[in-house]
Design a protein that fits this description.
By secondary structure, the protein is an alpha/beta fold. The chain is built from 10 helices and 11 strands. The strands form 2 sheets. It has a 6-stranded mixed β-sheet. Strands 1-4-3-2-11 form a 5-stranded mixed β-sheet, sandwiched between helices.
Length: about 260
């Protein structure tokens, strides 16, 4: 399977039509589209460490959730982070591809995985009006105190700490991995008792107790990293001969 064929495999599963209009994922670096793929490195983020591992480890493709070229670049110079990574990959013949908001919205993607890890059932999509339904809402097997649900979240996601606003008994849970501040009103409209996201925002969290919707910030990374295992499975589905490894992001630390 070539780089281009692997990308088309993922494009078929996660069509660009599911992407937010502002997104810029896809095949961002392909020095040799016809190159045969023998090794793929999967990571949540195209960090400098992930790029270096892809090059030194002899990988043909760096496959990530977050895009390498999220914003436009004006110069290919090694003194700027994104151009330096792009140049390093291109010079080494390593392709980079990413699937971002389309993977958030897709069936079986980021938010279905997040909902499943939290033990939710009867899962339904939701989103602000007019947007692609990235969020998911479902129910716990039984009602539980919000403080007990916090511990469930930490255990399920491996989150070292979470931020809780509000409380009480919760059962109907809305989730949106990553940055979910824009989904608060839509989460309320589902009738959820609690909204969980990676990051919601200080002022929105302050309003939670007054609006009757408990909220949890569980961390951008913790809510999205589980999708990496799914991406690795899909690479193996595309071609069982490809060697796939998953690399965690270690740039940020909770101290």
């Amino acid at each position: 399977m070539t780089v281009e064929e692997l990308y088309r495999f993922f494009e078929d599963k996660f069509p660009r039509a599911l992407s937010a209009a502002w997104d810029n994922d896809g095949l961002s670096c392909a020095p040799a589209p016809a190159k045969q793929v023998g090794r793929v490195l999967v990571a949540l983020d195209p960090t400098a460490a992930a790029v270096e591992e892809a090059v030194r480890g002899g990988y043909d493709v760096l496959l990530t959730h977050h895009p390498l070229l999220f914003r436009g670049i004006k110069a290919l110079v090694p003194t700027q982070a994104v151009p330096a990574k792009l140049m390093r990959l291109a010079c080494a013949g390593v392709a980079a591809m990413s699937f971002h908001t389309r993977l958030d919205a897709a069936n079986g993607g980021v938010n279905d995985i997040l909902a499943a890890k939290l033990g939710l059932s009867d899962i339904q999509p939701f989103a602000p009006e007019g947007e692609v339904p990235c969020g998911r809402v479902g129910v716990l097997k039984a009602p539980m105190d919000a403080a007990d649900f916090v511990q469930l979240v930490k255990d399920a996601l491996g989150a070292p700490a979470v931020l809780l606003a509000g409380g009480g008994t919760v059962q109907k849970i809305a989730v949106c991995g990553g940055e979910g501040g824009d989904f608060v009103e839509a989460a309320k409209a589902t009738g959820a008792d609690l909204f969980l996201s990676g990051r919601i925002g200080y002022h929105r969290m302050l309003d939670a107790p007054e609006e009757g919707l408990a909220m949890i910030e569980a961390g951008h990374y913790a809510t999205e990293f589980p999708v990496c295992a799914y991406l690795a499975e899909l690479v193996r589905e595309a071609d069982s001969a490809i060697v796939v490894d998953v690399m965690p992001t270690t740039t940020l630390h909770t101290l």
